[in-house]
Records
---
Amino acid sequence: MTDLQRIIDKIVSITAISLSVWHLSIVAGFGSYSTMDIRSIHLTVMLFLVFLATKHPIIADDAVDTPAVSQRNLMGLGLRLTLAMVSLGAGLYTYARWKPIAFSGGVTNDMDAWVGMVIVVLVLLAVIRRIGFLLSLIAIIFLLYPLLAPYLPGVFGGRGYGIERIAIFMATGTEGIFGIPLGVSASYIIIFTIFGAFLNNFGAGEFFFQIASSLTYGMRAASAKTAVIFSTLLGMISGSAAGNVAVTGTMTIPMMKREGYTPDQAAAIEAVVSTGGQIMPPIMGAAAFIMAEIIGRPYRDVMFAALIPALLFFTSILFIVHLRAVKSGMTVSEAPATTVPMAKIFLPGLRFVIPFALLVGMMVVGYSPFRASFVGLIALLAGCFLFEYRDLKGYMGRVLKSLEQGALAVLSIAAACAAAGIVAGVLSMTGVGSKISGLIISVSAGQPLIALAMTALMAIVLGMGLPTTAAYLILATVVAPPLVEMGIPILTAHMFVFFFGCISTITPPVALASYVAAGIAGSDINKTSWTAFAYGITSYILPFMFFFGPALLMEGTVIEILTALFIGLISVYCIATAVVGYFLQPLGAFGRLAMAIAGLLLLYQSPITNAVGLLLLAGMVAMVGPKYFSKE
């Protein structure tokens, strides 16, 4: 059994490496493939890897070797191999049939319908194995709608469709499973996950940690500020909240605990800053690439729009950790964060800085994200080779490992994108999307603020059981269109949904990033979750301000944008003082309330609220300032 498993693991590794090389060759210009060719091959291999690389959730390998255990392991292995082979067969059939169907004007046969049903089932099973039951359940509900529509009352009643028609629509064109979300997975996302895997395996994470430690050396709360800066830097190459916690938390959480933060505080700080990695340009969460494709704007626009919100997010948590340290009486740590001078850290790190600068620079001037990431990857490989040419075997080992990890990192995303394609396909097929839009507009009485509040609640609830990408895909397909119908700009509506999908990872009662951080810190899960919620409170308010202050999304004149940034920084500081309860001195309930109101007014981004907020802040300075400066 062990030898067979080793063979399967080797097949998985070779397949993943081959897929990465194939995708990179497409970006490099080798070979010409149609959109459907790329998407069908991508999904076929992804399904193959999902079932072959992931053990059965119930029938898993056991450590104890008994006849009963061996039989269960054999059954599980047989099921995995069967599903993997069926995925290959169905995928190859789709690849061979899509052109004849397209060129014939949509003429299909019974076999097309049967294979379509198989692909739909395989996608649902892949989602269960990689993400969980909730997204699969949502997709099933949407699949049932065309069958039940003739029997439903009221606004949701409509024309019905048979199983064969649904299966063919979902699996033979680009409006169902092989739609825009899967296309983004097969073009943008996999290239960036490969790029991120190369950065990680060649030591970019350690470089970022040393830079963060050097920048915070000699400061109060140096470990917590190192965690904030480290996660900010790491967030620029990784788009996973829980993944960021797992990478950075093992280093930063013990440091924070030693400096005087309680376990739940240390875990909460790490959970919040790691969550911010998904909204930190240039490489945001996978959902950001999908957003760019859905709204029909360059990824560069999405990246720029997220810049000020991301800065306000990380500045807010930086204020919180500093104020918490001051309030708790923490002193400057005597132990240096790093003994290596900045120059000695930075010079070897040029192999990471130059590719990163190329990536950002090329996207800014208008190159596509996948072309920019490919050029950055070539520069990274060249730079690392200059440092590691004496260890050619180790260098090639890291290259192969990165190619494998880059492909495997997309498994969950590809499954989520395929499931979102089912939802989008049903909306397109039945027109139920317009009915949902009408319902939301009716319930909100046409008031954008009420509709935004409803959307935020839906995003948080969905995010409790779904990863950010899956939650965003569902909301962008179902909820964002009615927001746009109400007059909310399309980028604002989608950025709103994206933000709330991201911060669901720190929203109790189900907060995945907080759970991972609590496990590392050894703290209580619930206490950590609620502490993280409090520390990240600004991120729950900020998305509403996108509607009232578009300059926060880089939409406006230079003066308007700079003013929004300046006022935004003051507002998040006020909110941070209210959360911690410290502004030059410990604050009581009245002082915290006053600072919270000042912060909210400033975040509203209008001349009147800015004036009132600044007056309120000035009043607080007048109240506590003299006492503070007399002590000094």
---
Amino acid sequence: MNVIVERIADFLKKYPPFNYLSVDELKIVASSIHVINLEKDKTLFKVGDHLHDSFYTVASGIINLSVIADAEETFLNKCVAGDVFGLRPFFAKNNYMMTAKAREECVIFAIPIVAFRPFVAQNADVLNFLLESFATNSNNPGDQNKGKLLSDNVVFQGQQPEIQYFQSFSYNKTPLKTTAAAQVKDVAQLMTDNLFNSVIVSEKNMPIGIVTDTDLRSKVATGRFPLTTTIDKIMSSPVLTVPENVSLAEAQLIMLQGNVTHLCVTQDGTDKSEIKGIIAEHDLIVAQASNPGVLIKEIKRSQDAKDLKRVRGKLTDMIQTSLNKNIPLSHINNISGEISLAIVKRSVELSILELGSPPARFAWLSIGSQGRKEQLLLTDQDHILVFEDVAAEKYRDVKDYFLKLAKKVTETLQKVGYNPCPNGHLASNMLWCKSLTDWIKQYENWMNTPGEISNEISSIFFDYEIAYGEPKIEEAITDVIFNNVRKKKLFFDYLGNDALRKPPALTFFKKFALEEEGPHKDKFDIKTRALMPLIDAARLFTLSLHIKGINNTYLRYKQLAMIDSKHAEIFLNCAEAFQALSKIRVTEGMKNDDSGQYINIEQLSKNDREILKNALLPMRDIEDLIKDSFQLTQFS
């Protein structure tokens, strides 16, 4: 081994994943490496470049990784000696999603993918390092050793890494199948007629092998086997199999490990169970276009409601897949909430493009479940519009513009799939489209004289999130609420009684309280009887304890537990109960393609019925705490 190769091997062995390799394996890798001297401010690769045939590790200097978003360069991370980056060629076929630029003069080792791939397939430690790092978008997953792997995946602000590679993953569920005795020429004709590039060789509907275009080219077209050969002579066997709920990351790494381009999907993930489909390398490439960050980009490029509806469909698929993979609901809510708000924002932008520039600054606030980032299903749209104060003589014209704008946005969102709120809580309603001063008066009236106009107030107006516009307007609304909330016993009296006024979830005999009449007779109203009491209680205590900036019910309870240690157990139990109830509602809504509000108890599994009943237990404790904490007299 020459001196340079020896020095490179000595350097690499100090850092993962190279420290998992044997001395001989390190020699092979080191001898294949190309050394790059990169001057300061020079770029190794940039966003959109075709993938290189190598990945990289820093020998000396610093490499900055960045991404271009909305015409701005955003710094992501820096790579120092021992750090590995540029691994995208291992996992994807599309172009680079970030830029690697020298912050100072650097020496970079370029490691050919073809030279390193065999060690990934043969070494479980190397494979696990890549799997954990790539799937979690993190640094060295196990510890803080020198040297880390920088994922080549870009996530939008606030995205939880756990979810990134569990999005919707579609594959062919009706693969071509043949028997081992079939002749090559017949199988080739079958593939041609159906425009498929693979066929599974099966026995009793269980896979025993696979044949792809590559096999036909390398084994038949070259003359090694005649067309009359039986297919079992050229098939690849055993075939790599995966279960039906395999994730994108898992499929990518299994392909990488096996150095194959197809995976057979079976009922239990083994070759001893029924064939359920086939995953091609192309399916993985398509799936990468459905991760949350890409969905946000698609939304920004959308030109009409049809485009936005298509993205919302992908979001639904991603939510379903995430539920199947048992991703924590709080993470799913966070991602879904960001994407939903992006859809609203783009709807506003498209409407402005059609109407012309607004005559004043404004804020579009999503309220209710969307304002709390709890809208996983396609339920109602609820929103308000607040525009800055204008001169009296301009008020009518300004309000007319914003009412027209709100009407267009509401119509766009309806086409996407969000039906208008049946209670009229819409910015297109002149009651909920007005100036900042008028909104300040509105909130002050609600808080100072609650219940005077009972059909006008709704507690969901206190759950809001800005989707578009001027953040300072939203801040002004928040300041009004929290400046007025102190010593407002009457207001808390109203909210407390409102929270307790919901119909009970259980009967006197501890059975589920089912609807007695109407179209939902004999079903359980999980929204009104179970979720809303918890939502109302969380809002009530959050306002009373002056907690700003947290709208999500689960996070409100978690914050309340931190602030009020005396009642922390009650709040934590409510947090977990809310998550369990929400998951049941979303799961049932997805299954029945509806709002999930009304649950057929008989159709739930015994385990789900038990989960549902247990989730209702903390409600008595939170109701008692409301009665003990607030003077509930006037509105009782």
